[in-house]
Design goal:
Blueprint: E1 5-14, E2 23-30, E3 37-43, E4 55-59, E5 67-70, E6 75-81, E7 89-99, E8 102-113, H1 119-145, H2 154-188, H3 195-203, H4 218-245, H5 249-277, H6 284-297
Antiparallel strand pairs: 1-2, 1-8, 3-6, 4-7, 5-6, 7-8
Helix pairs in contact: 1-2, 1-3, 1-4, 4-5
C-alpha cells in the first residue's frame, strides 16, 4: 500500500462588509507522524465587526475529538484528531456573530486531510498531462481534416500540425518537471507520494477519445481549437492557484513562466482568426472564398 500524506488545508473566506480577499494557508503533515492531534490557528482578525466580543469560531461539521480554544475575539486555535486509517477527512468551521436567534456568518474555514503532499502537482501529473495528450490528438485530426481533397487547405493543415507539435514539446517539459519533483520527493520525504505512478495511470489513460470537432468549415476548426486551448488555460490556472496557496514556488513559476504564456498567445491568435479573417461569411461561396484566401496568405 502506497504511503499517504496528510494535507491540512486551512481556508478562511472573509464575508465581511470590507470585502477582504480570501485568506488561505496550508499545512502539510506526514501521516506517520503519529501525533494524536494537529493544531492550526483560525484567524479572522481581518473581519471588521462592531462588537467582536460576540463572535466565535464554531465547528460546522460534528466530528469527535475536535477542540476549539479561543485566543482572541476573532482568533482561535483548533485541534483536530488524526483521521483513523489515514482516510480523507474534512473539518468545516464558521466564524459567527451571535445576535438574537440568527447568527451572522463572518468567515468560514476548512481543514482538509488529503492523501497528496501537493494538490497542484497531482493535477499537473493527471489533469494537465491528459489534457495535453487529448489536445494533441484533436489537433492532429484537424490537421488531417484540412489535407483532404474535399477540404484542402495545406497551410491551415500545417498551422494545426505546428500546434500539435507544440503540445508534444509542452508535454515533454511537464513530464521532465514531474520526474524531477518526484526525485526530490523520494530523496527528502519519508513517505513520498508517487506522482509518476499517478501520471502513468490517470494522465496517460489507455484510451483517448476524439471530441466533437464540428463540421468541415474552416472556422469550425479554429473555434474548436480556441475552445480546447481555453480549457487548457483554465486547468493550468487552477494548478497555479493551488501551487500559490501551498507556497510551491517552483511549480507556480513553471506554470506561469513556461506553460501559460504560450497557451495565452495561442488563444489570442485563434480568437483573432475567428473574429476577423474568417468571420462574417454569410453564404457558402463567400465562405469558400474567405477560406481560400486565408489559406493562401497564411504565414506559418
Amino acid at each position: 500500500m502506497a504511503s499517504l500524506h496528510l494535507l491540512i488545508l486551512l481556508l478562511v473566506t472573509s464575508q465581511a462588509i470590507s470585502n477582504h480577499p480570501i485568506q488561505t494557508e496550508t499545512f502539510t503533515f506526514d501521516n506517520r507522524d503519529c501525533r494524536d492531534g494537529y493544531t492550526v490557528t483560525l484567524n479572522g482578525s481581518s473581519v471588521r465587526v462592531n462588537n467582536p466580543h460576540h463572535c466565535e469560531w464554531d465547528q460546522k461539521t460534528h466530528h469527535e475529538g475536535v477542540k476549539i480554544k479561543k485566543i482572541e475575539s476573532l482568533v482561535a486555535n483548533v485541534t483536530v484528531p488524526r483521521p483513523p486509517n489515514n482516510e480523507n477527512m474534512t473539518y468545516l468551521f464558521e466564524l459567527a456573530k451571535h445576535k438574537g436567534r440568527k447568527d451572522r456568518i463572518l468567515a468560514t474555514a476548512k481543514i482538509l486531510f488529503s492523501e497528496y503532499s501537493s494538490e497542484g502537482l497531482r493535477e499537473l501529473a493527471t489533469d494537465v498531462v491528459h489534457a495535453l495528450i487529448t489536445l494533441h490528438y484533436d489537433l492532429v485530426f484537424l490537421s488531417h481534416r484540412h489535407q483532404r481533397s474535399s477540404c484542402f487547405h495545406p497551410k491551415v493543415a500545417g498551422y494545426f500540425r505546428n500546434l500539435a507539435k507544440e503540445k508534444v514539446s509542452t508535454l515533454d517539459a511537464v513530464i521532465k518537471f514531474i520526474h524531477e519533483k518526484q526525485a526530490t520527493e523520494d530523496a527528502t520525504t519519508d513517505c513520498p507520494t508517487n506522482y509518476v505512478a499517478m501520471m502513468e495511470k490517470d494522465g496517460f489513460k489507455e484510451t483517448v477519445m476524439l471530441r466533437d470537432l464540428g463540421d468541415d468549415a474552416m472556422i469550425s476548426s479554429f473555434r474548436k481549437a480556441y475552445e480546447f486551448e481555453t480549457n487548457l488555460a483554465r486547468t493550468l490556472t487552477q494548478v497555479f492557484h493551488h501551487s500559490e496557496n501551498n507556497k510551491e514556488i517552483e511549480l507556480s513559476e513553471f506554470i506561469s513562466a513556461e506553460l501559460l504564456p504560450q497557451v495565452t498567445k495561442n488563444i489570442g491568435s485563434l480568437k483573432n482568426v475567428i473574429e476577423t479573417a474568417l468571420g462574417g461569411a454569410h453564404s457558402t461561396s463567400d465562405r469558400h472564398l474567405k477560406e481560400f484566401l486565408f489559406d493562401k496568405y497564411l504565414d506559418i
